[in-house]
Amino acid sequence: MRQPIYIAAYHQSKFGKLMGMTVPDIIKQAVEGVCREIKVEPSAIDVGSIGAACNFSLNKQGLLAGLVAMVPGLAAKPIEAVENACASGGQAILSVIHKLLVGDGDVGIAIGYEKMRDAEGKMDGKLIGEVLGYFSHPDDRPGKVFIFPHLFAEVMDLYLKTHGVKEQDLARIAVIEYGNAKYNPYAQMQKVQITLEQAMKIEGINRYVVEGLPLKTYDCSQITDGYAAMIIATGEGLRKLGVAKAGTVEIAGYAQATDPLTKEGRDVLRPRGAYTAMNRAYSMAGVTPADVTVAEVHDCFTVMGAIGAEVLGKAGYGRGAWYWAEGKASVGGECTINASGGLIAKGHPIGATGVAMVGSCAWQLLGKAPTELQVKNPKVAATFNIGGTICSSVCTVLKPAS
Predict the structure, then answer these.
(1) Which of 109, 278, 308, 361 has the greatest count of CB atoms below 10 A from its CB?
(2) 336 pairs with which residues across the strands?
(3) Which residues 6+ apart lie within 8 Å of 265 measured at CB?
(4) CA atoms within 13 A on the CB side of 135
(5) Does residue 274 contact residue 364 with C-beta atoms inside 8 Å?
(6) Strand 381-387 to strand 294-297: parallel, antiparallel, or no bridges (unpaired)?
(7) Alpha helices of 196-268 — where are they, by DSSP H?
(8) What is the CA radius of gyration of the chain?
(9) DSSP structure class, residue 44
(10) pTM (2 d.p.)
(11) Please, which pLDDT band fits residue 402 given cuts at 50, 70 and 90?
(12) What is the C-alpha separation between 5 and 236, in angstroms, rounded?
């Protein structure tokens, strides 16, 4: 039997703008912040992994593991950097789990971050569009100015036409998530609220991103700075940390799977890797989709909120948009999805996103979510983190430790 793995602590920044913070500053604050959550020194950590996607292209910084090792107490320990596009954070968590399972240590730290804005909080949209495009196949790029919005606009168009869904059915997902973000103090769009009418009306900032395709500004996730960190431990690790198991969450199931990078030639509405990873995580945890009452899915665009509900197994194929429309994904619904506000309204600091998904679900299971967002008596939570055009998928299943 595999050794149980627990979340001993979680910490994140407010998502949005980190202003003049440098990458070394971000990493140091992430490590020290999560250690303060359980009053331990970084030296208590045995292994680590850090995920980021734009460290070279936007931050001109490599060898992130060396920056982690600069935090006093972490030198000369097994630490690595991982990159799996927008699934880098989830991959960092799995990397730490695997290090613990092979006996490299009993306590690990998973860190994710992204710094996408400058010291004044401004962004270069054209540059960001270009560098994010590097995470697509070269054959998918020609003729596209903003590559990923264009690719997902095609996915959205296919979803609408295949399932008879209307644009407003997906726009409603954004409205629900902005409503959730209002109560999340860590959310980038906490102070912004939208109505369905605003999400559908083409005026001001809300426009069609690609001519002839249905994706609008409010269907898109945010360009975001932010970091998140998690201390993960074995049972022996919890003992060493002085953390009671009863106050933790078990990562009961986890899996990763990757589909071909190019979108052409595969069923993006039923991504094989995503379903494979989710089902493996369920099997490992010994649960079914019916057991899940809270989840975080990778809604980089509203269509992924719908597809995410289907990958979770909460909605049948082509029924994800209706799952939201019927209130089943809302707080207090059958399975609360993206109570945090999701990537649409919470924000999407790429490397931090996968860590934050798991962290948000852990807070739900521990009863630490904001009152307005807290799910009643949650027993099982699930996360679905993707990279690329639904290329790499990292899925987890969480339970309160017993």
Answers:
(1) 308
(2) 294
(3) none
(4) 27
(5) no
(6) parallel
(7) 196-200, 235-241
(8) 19
(9) G
(10) 0.98
(11) confident
(12) 10
Task: For residue 109, list its beta bridge partners.
Answer: 48, 231
Q: What is the mean pLDDT of the chain?
A: 98
Backbone angles phi, psi at 85, to 5 degrees: 55, -135
254's tokens: 């986890």
Q: From residue 122, give the alpha-carbon distance in Å to each of 17, 59, 188, 348, 357.
A: 9, 14, 14, 16, 25
End-to-end CA distance of the chain: 17
Query: What's the pLDDT score for residue 170?
Result: 98
* Contact in structure between 347 and 219 (CB atoms under 8 Å): no
Residue 329 confidence class, pLDDT cut points 50, 70, 90: very high
Query: Hey, which bits of 218-351 come out as E strands?
Result: 226-233, 249-258, 294-297, 336-337
Neighbours of 19 (CB within 10 A): 12
What is the residue whose two structure tokens read 């089902």?
279
| 165 and 317 Cβ atoms separated by less than 8 Å | no
User: If DSSP codes are grouped into helix, strand and coil, which group holds residue 46?
Assistant: coil
CA–CA dist 194, 394 (Å, integer) = 30
Segment 274-301 shows an average pLDDT of 98
Residue ranges of domains in the chain: 6-119+224-247
Specify the DSSP class assigned to residue 216: B
How do residues 309-326 score in pLDDT, each as one tens digit? 999 999 999 999 999 999
* Cβ atoms of residues 400 and 250 within 8 Å: yes
Q: Is 79 helix (H, G, I), strand (E, B) or coil?
A: strand
Q: Closest Cα partner for 389 from 225, 165, 159, 187?
A: 159
Amino acid in the structure at residue 329: A
Whether residue 109 contacts residue 230, with contact meaning beta carbons closer than 8 Å, is answered with: yes
Assess whether pLDDT exceeds 90 at residue 1.
no
